[in-house]
User: Which sequence fits this backbone?
């Protein structure tokens, strides 16, 4: 059994840099968490980050193979471009490293489910970083829904928008929709029975490079879900979830971590203690590795999310509603 989480962060882009900072902070708080190495293909980027964080150059590497060969590293956190996720993850699994894999875990469901199975066969922890599962506002929301105080769930609206330069060669469905799709599953324990997607490439003018999209999903029991995605909305960055039920409406701001309730009998804010979701994810990963237990957010959920994303893209490309399952 592993006595410590000795991790290498793979990729030092925007998110990878945040992860490096969080792993360093975690290592100061817990003796059983250690950031061993930082990997990137661009050594100049590594040196810039090391200088900024006062890290020794010995912690830097441009060789992924060296990381996989090292006995003193038992885990990797992969935060590289989406198209590299599968190759890096399957190599780590074959090297018997535990893995946190950023979303989407792969660009096809076949490859995503392959990662799940190979991780099982090699007895390694594979945690897909659906970070909002660690968000306290959503945890409180899930508890409220599970208590049944609001009666039947009618519909949900999720808005994931911001104004930014569209990421190069990125598909907004695979890049931005994984979180909303996963949140819906987290809150309802259900997957869409059918989906419809539509989107436009206003800036780049190319199919497959849409900068905005609307998604409608139908869950079992006639629960409807509407998701809005945008990289071209000039308003403030929004990560919002609105839930309309039989007895009231819940309004969740996942960034501010607030939950508001509107009903006939009450109107107000539910107390939520905001948390550092990245830190809590790191702690959860470490605990699962040290105790050799599967993560709460199963890798199968990550693979199913990719499967749903494929169906949304199919709908967008055909203009038709796509059925995912019956019954």
Assistant:
């Amino acid at each position: 059994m592993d006595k410590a989480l000795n991790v290498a962060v793979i990729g030092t882009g925007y998110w990878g840099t945040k992860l490096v900072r969080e792993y360093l902070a975690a290592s100061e708080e817990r003796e059983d968490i250690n950031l061993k190495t930082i990997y990137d293909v661009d050594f100049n980027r590594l040196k810039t980050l090391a200088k900024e964080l006062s890290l020794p150059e010995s912690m830097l590497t441009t060789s992924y193979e060296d990381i996989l060969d090292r006995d003193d590293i038992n885990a990797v956190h992969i935060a590289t471009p989406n198209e590299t996720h599968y190759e890096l993850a399957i190599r780590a699994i074959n090297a018997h490293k535990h893995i946190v894999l950023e979303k989407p875990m792969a660009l096809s469901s076949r490859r995503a489910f392959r990662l799940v199975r190979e991780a099982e066969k090699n007895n390694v922890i594979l945690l897909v970083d659906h970070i909002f599962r660690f968000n306290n506002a959503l945890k409180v929301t899930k508890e409220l829904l599970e208590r049944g105080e609001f009666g039947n769930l009618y519909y949900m609206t999720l808005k994931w928008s911001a104004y930014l330069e569209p990421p190069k060669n990125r598909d907004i469905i695979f890049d931005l929709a994984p979180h909303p799709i996963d949140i819906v599953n987290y809150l309802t324990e259900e997957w869409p029975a059918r989906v419809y997607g539509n989107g436009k490439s206003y800036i780049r003018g190319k199919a497959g490079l849409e900068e905005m999209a609307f998604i409608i999903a139908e869950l079992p029991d006639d629960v409807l879900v509407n998701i809005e995605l945008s990289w071209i909305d000039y308003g403030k960055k929004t990560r919002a979830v609105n839930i309309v039920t039989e007895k009231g409406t819940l309004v969740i701001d996942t960034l501010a971590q607030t939950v508001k309730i509107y009903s006939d009998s009450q109107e107000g804010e539910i107390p939520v203690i905001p948390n550092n979701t990245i830190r809590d994810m790191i702690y959860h990963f470490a605990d699962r590795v040290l105790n050799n237990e599967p993560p709460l957010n199963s890798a199968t959920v990550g693979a199913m999310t990719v499967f749903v994303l494929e169906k949304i893209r199919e709908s967008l490309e055909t203009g038709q509603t796509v059925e995912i399952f019956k019954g």
